[in-house]
Specification:
By secondary structure, this protein is of the alpha/beta class. Helix content is 32%, strand content 16%. A hairpin with a 6-residue loop joins strand 2 and strand 3. The model has no long low-confidence stretch (mean pLDDT 93). Bound molecules: threonylcarbamoyladenylate and magnesium ion. Magnesium ion binds next to loops.
Length: 312
């Protein structure tokens, strides 16, 4: 049984991390499965616990800019984005600093590091108390829906991790936007809308070709996979349970007022609930309303397409 740790016991969670244990913790995007990023055995346990098929690079989480500077070198554009969006739902892939104390498994032996300063107050407190960089992918079994509550983490990983730090429901609900390269390109859509980053840089940002990214679960065609089969861009409810967006008949609604921020925060929890509805209705399928392809809608559509993709 994973120990339940509340917001008054963050030092206990930090001590477990320092001892090489796995601790799930809240960020504003999704819950992360944390391990000491300087400890090879602890990081290897992440891959075993998630059943990750391959050793993909992991995002390294730090408490402040000083800790980030110790691990990576910032390009001027990356620094600009960091000033605009950190702490927050953004990851930057940057050149690893010579002698940075990160184990090779974290970076998959690349000479770059994916680094993030999360905004969630419990994540920040945990990182400060742990006193070292923390590697963390989303805290779900590989290929399954990302967790946005402590209960989701337990449902997937209960007996395989030391503890879960409970910080309630994640407010953003989508993984971080990943930028990398010089000039900066988009590696994964996420919690920071592309338009906001373009505004900060004062120029358009290209999406990197899929080949620019090491093959990673989040980039696989089928990911975030519920058990049910899913049909996207369905305007009105038919025979199958329907996940709505905006007004109209629906079994659950990502946002009745058509708000993309609210929809992002609801997405992963509602995919789980729709999966249960589809199983109960024995249709084994559900439909999803069209989501506009702007702002956070870009990342929501990306995750829905992966959830709906044929399984490998
Ligand atoms: O919101 C998030 O990003 C969550 C929370 C826990 O921080 N984490 C997360 O991690 O989504 P994960 O493991 O599901 O996705 C990590 C992504 C992968 O697509 C991986 O390829 C990319 O980050 N990545 C990490 N380091 C990289 C590197 N050095 N070069 C290129 N891509 C990298
Ligand atoms: Mg993930």
């Amino acid at each position: 049984m994973a120990r339940a740790i509340n917001r008054h016991q963050v030092e206990d969670a930090a001590a477990l991390l320092r001892a090489g244990e796995l601790v799930a913790f809240p960020t504003e995007t999704v819950y992360g499965l944390g391990a000491d990023a300087t400890n090879d055995k602890a990081v290897a346990a992440i891959f075993a616990t998630k059943n990750r098929p391959t050793f993909n690079p992991l995002i390294v989480h730090v408490a402040d800019m000083e800790a980030a500077e110790a691990l990576v070198t910032f390009t001027p554009e990356a620094r600009h984005l960091a000033q605009a969006f950190w702490p927050g739902p953004m990851t930057l892939v940057l050149p690893k600093r010579e002698g940075a104390p990160l184990c090779d498994l974290v970076t998959a032996s690349l000479d770059t590091v994916g680094i993030r300063l999360p905004a969630h107050p419990l994540a920040q407190e945990l990182l400060r108390k742990a006193g070292r960089p923390i590697a963390a992918p989303s805290a779900n079994p590989s290929g399954k829906i990302s967790p946005t509550t402590a209960a989701h983490v337990r449902a997937g990983l209960e007996n395989r991790i030391a503890a879960v730090l409970d910080g309630g429901a994640c407010t953003v609900g989508l993984e971080s936007t990943i930028f990398g390269g010089d000039p900066i390109t988009l590696l994964r859509p996420g919690g920071i809308p592309l338009e906001a980053a373009e505004k900060a840089l004062g120029r358009g940002i290209r999406s990197a070709k899929a080949t620019a990214l090491p093959t990673a679960p989040g980039q696989l065609a089928s990911h975030y996979a519920p058990e049910a089969s899913i049909t996207l861009d369905v305007q009105t409810r038919g025979d199958a349970p329907h996940l709505g967006f905006g007004p109209g008949e629906a079994d659950l609604n990502l946002s009745e007022r058509g708000d993309l921020v609210e929809a992002a925060a609801n997405l992963f929890a509602m995919l789980r609930d729709m999966d249960a509805l589809a199983a109960a209705a024995e249709t084994r399928k559900f439909t999803v309303a069209p989501i506009p392809d702007s702002g956070l809608g870009h990342a929501i559509r990306d995750r829905l397409q992966r959830a709906a993709a044929p399984r490998p």
